[in-house]
Design a protein that fits this description.
141 residues; alpha+beta; three-stranded antiparallel beta sheet; 5 helices; 5 strands; 43% helix
């Protein structure tokens, strides 16, 4: 069996450029408010945005970059390797958002349908997926 090569493993695109591109794509998909959230080290951990579902309903969505997970899988030990993991994580998120927006524009899916697992409950401080995964809400058997 052929070994899988991780996409964007050697991406040279800076996180800042990927983040800016993600924000532009989210605007194209209908996002009305976009901001970033940071970890304890003051590094950007992801993007939060609002997108209208229907008149008067504008849920919040939280897209994490999960740089730490990527760094762990890539076995990043040096600062250069950690920077590469950051580039890879953000470029992957950019590619995923780009595909979602393409599907939205081609009316294969609706905006909220694309980002539904990332609906964020500000009181619980959890996404819909996190709540379902932990059994707080019954979506997954």
């Amino acid at each position: 069996m052929k070994e899988y090569r991780i996409k964007n493993y050697t991406s040279g695109v800076s996180p800042a450029k990927s983040i800016a591109a993600i924000e532009e794509l989210l605007i194209l998909a209908g996002a009305k408010q976009i901001s970033k959230f940071y970890n304890d080290s003051m590094e950007i951990d992801g993007i939060i945005f609002q997108m209208p579902l229907k008149p008067g309903v504008m849920p919040i969505f939280k897209l994490p970059s999960k740089v730490k997970n990527v760094a762990r899988i890539m076995n990043a030990r040096t600062e250069a390797q950690k920077r590469q993991a950051e580039c890879t994580a953000w470029k992957l998120l950019h590619d995923w958002v780009s595909i979602q927006v393409s599907m939205i524009k081609l009316e294969q899916i609706e905006s909220v349908e694309a980002f539904l697992p990332y609906v964020y409950d500000t009181q619980e401080k959890r996404t819909l997926f996190e709540s379902a995964k932990d059994g707080k809400i019954k979506l997954l058997n």
